[in-house]
Write a structure and sequence with these properties.
With 151 residues, the chain is an alpha/beta fold. It has one domain: D-tyrosyl-tRNA(Tyr) deacylase (D-tyrosyl-trna(Tyr) Deacylase, Chain: A), CATH 3.50.80.10. Helices cover 25% and strands 37% of the residues. The strands form 2 sheets. Strands 1, 2, 3, 6, 7 and 8 form a 6-stranded mixed beta sheet that branches. The chain has a two-stranded antiparallel sheet with strand order 4-5. A hairpin with a 2-residue loop joins β1 and β2. α1 runs parallel beside α3. The radius of gyration is 15 Å and the shape is globular.
Length: 151
C-alpha cells in the first residue's frame, strides 16, 4: 500500500457537490492499494501513520503525533498512486489492485486507524471526488508498506 500523508489545518472531500467528509487539524491521507497488498500492509501503514510525529511541540520540533494534538484523519482512496509512467506519457495502472480487493483493503485500513483515532472521515471508493485542503508547513510524507515490511 502507498500513502501520501499531508499535515493539514483543514481538509474536505466533496462528491456530486456535497461534502462527504471534512476535518480540521490532522492528516489528509491519499491511499493506494497494489496488487500484492494484503491486510498486513494495511495494519503496518495504519500503525505507522497514527504514530507519525510530525506536529510541532513547544520547542517547534516535529515531535507530536495525531493523538497528542487531538488530530483527525481524512482518508481518500487513490489508485493513481500505483501509476506506471516508465513507458510513454500515458500512465497505466496495472500495478493497482482490482477494485474489489482495493475497496476491501481500503475499508480494512479505515477500521485499523479508527481503533486509535476518534475522528476518521473518508471519501467514497471509486467516486469522482474533489479534495480541498490547506497543507500545513507544507509537510508531506510518502509511505509504502513494502518499505515497512523490510524493517
Amino acid at each position: 500500500m502507498r500513502a501520501v500523508i499531508q499535515r493539514v489545518t483543514r481538509a474536505s472531500v466533496t462528491i456530486d457537490g456535497k461534502v462527504k467528509g471534512s476535518i480540521d487539524n490532522g492528516f489528509l491521507v491519499l491511499l493506494g492499494v497494489g496488487q500484492e497488498d494484503d491486510e498486513k500492509d494495511a495494519e503496518l501503514l495504519a500503525a505507522k501513520i497514527v504514530k507519525l510525529r510530525i506536529f510541532e511541540d513547544e520547542n517547534e520540533k516535529m515531535n507530536l503525533a495525531l493523538g497528542d494534538v487531538g488530530g483527525s484523519l481524512l482518508v481518500i482512496s487513490n489508485f493513481t498512486l500505483y501509476a506506471d509512467y516508465h513507458h510513454g506519457n500515458r500512465p497505466n495502472f496495472l500495478l493497482s489492485a482490482p477494485p474489489e480487493k482495493a475497496n476491501k483493503l481500503y475499508e480494512y485500513f479505515l477500521a485499523c486507524v479508527r481503533k486509535d483515532i476518534p475522528k476518521v472521515e473518508c471519501g467514497e471508493f471509486g467516486a469522482d471526488m474533489k479534495v480541498d485542503l490547506l497543507n500545513d508547513g507544507p509537510v508531506t510524507i510518502v509511505m509504502d508498506s513494502e518499505v515497512l515490511r523490510k524493517k
